[in-house]
Amino acid sequence: MEELRSFGYICPKCGKAVMGSRTKFALSASAVRIECDCGDPGLEVQTDGARFRLWVPCGLCGDTHQAEVDASAVLEGRGVGLACPKTKQLCCYVGEENEVRRHVEELAIRAEKEKAGAEEAFTDNVIMYEVLSELKDIAARDGISCTCGSHDYTMQIHRGAVDLTCTRCGARLRLDAATDEDLDRLCCQMTLTIGKR
Asked: Is residue 84 located within the same domain as residue 133?
């Protein structure tokens, strides 16, 4: 099977983390668009063979940024990050799926905090960051799956909870992230199953 390259960004319209993968052949052959479920126009990728041109919707400032990257940076290696020229922070990541997922999850946290626009972005910042750290550990050992069998999911961070949504069937698992009890409940989990009643 041909190697896939992934793209990840935060949708400026709905705030959701968006990820999409394409084969190297598909990327080299024609223009590619990675769209959010909410209907936002999404990320566009074009190439002339030597360089890739990307139009990136920015979840940090709301604009669409244009970037040019060497083909080798897009098609080879662990990945490359693209920064928002206004905030100087990463707004898009391209590369290996695991690397892109990790960076997009971190980006989702940052975008949520920027959107909150206050010092206290969450009900309890410490608890939220601990919950996200636990989720990262569970994900690192491939411990997050859905009852439908898929291991692909998106993460949406709210003020006092985190939603994991299966990208295949749409099932959702809400994890409260506001109190010590919420954190304790998550800490004793080795795996998480989306869609489990």
From this structure: no
